[in-house]
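Sorry to interrupt, but I need a hand with the structure work. Please put the record directly below this note.
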Amino acid sequence: MILENGTVYTLDAAFRARALAVTRDGRVARGVEAWEGSSSAVSSERIDLDGRVVVPGLVDAHVHFLSWALAQSRLRLQACRSVAECLTAVAERHAEDRAAGRADGWLVGAGWREALFPDGRPTAAALDRVLPDRPAALWAHDNHSLWLNTAALRSAGLDLEAAASPGGVVERDAGGRPTGVLRERAAWDFPVPAADAGDRLEAVLAGQRLAHRRGVTGVHDLEADHGFRVWQALHGDRRLTLRVVAGQQATRLDAVLACGLTTGFGDEQLQVGPVKAFMDGTVGSRTARMLEPFADGGTGVEITGRAALEELVRRATAGGLAVAVHAIGDRANREALDALEATAALWHEAGLRPRIEHAQLLHPDDVARFGRLGVVASMQPSHAPSDRDVADAAWGSRVVTAYAWRALRDAGATLAFGSDAPIEELDPLAGLHAAVNRTVDERPAWHPEQALDPRAALEGFTIGPAVAAGRERRLGTLAPGRLADLTVLDGDPVAGPPEAIRRIGVVATMVGGRWVHGRPPW
């Protein structure tokens, strides 16, 4: 087919197209075939863009896809600005569930931000006032803290002393009694009942459709549990239309190595990604690992130390696995870079590309190390405007090198952008707007010196993820021979007004020459 009469951003400096030709086997053909003469060796089908804009397919380089898909039907607390508002939302949802006859199981929700609450801290006692008998488990916005009521604690039979093992925090009151809030490993290890296999599959199918409606052609999925199994099921049934790079958890490294899985194994639709390790927590939970204390005290929680990470990288590299390292605080990022620098000869020789996930706060001395070492900065632009108030309160003047996209790019780092869904919404255009404008509301841009120009931001959702996955010869641009993954937009994100990016809509999405959303005519 030939897409013509619009604007085409190939993002390849050596290839400019006035129209775009797609071969029958789903690849980009040479542009000259698309506009010379009235017929084409590629196809006789011509699609009139009518002034619309074509960009390479948008990729979210950091999602927890199953969690995000399931969250679409769970209680959302993102809009709550107090404990009282959270309790009201919980009570209302319980009443709805009871009226619908589905109040027998757990009430699960997510999105609360303790740092924004003026009326105290989350506690089990507070939740008990509105939900005394039904177990409730409410994840914080950053998914690193879990707020439980007494019924949930009782139902799980949790050994809180065991939950306080290294890397886990059990919040306690002045008398030493658990408050009902768990952080980091204590939260992740808490046995919140999982959705059954059928519900997981249906949620991911619905999520896939929604992702395509938002222009997404691929994801790098770092789901902790069940995610890879769901993707395999969809792929086996030929219902997988996203291109998925599926990460594995470093806590299961022995099992992954025993299976002989290597990063890049798979096909064009589903392949094994990196193993993910955690250095620290988050800014919102005050568990990010810091060189200097938070403004209100504390230096965070160490989940993996520098020496342990170095050993993990050596083992993973020997097994053909790249490593993705969660690091939020400046100390966590420094120690992650130290470990990667100590092992650089190994992973360079193996052709692997390590990534640091989030890289939210960097010491100025560490910014240039990403480009020099070849470590991918896997970042989420929507985090910056979402976290700005929390980050200002926690880090003070240090935020000048927080979410430092411009500084990292200028230093030669590869930026691979995502959403961290369900932490932020899986929506690349919202991320693009955040990367360019450093705001999502009516307030002025937050540290605009770290904003990116629109083309650089677009590359973060196209070329960057391809490079991070070692797929830049097949994906990321619309050069001849590349797979025909593309997104059709109703506005120009590169040449249009930057403030208008938030109003751009997705018209259609194509994966491998196949329309997966918005089949013409439009």
Notes: The chain has two domains: 60-64+197-508, 106-188. DSSP finds 18 helices and 22 strands in the chain. The CA atoms of residues 184 and 380 lie 20 Å apart. The domain at 60-64+197-508 is CATH 3.20.20.140 (TIM Barrel).
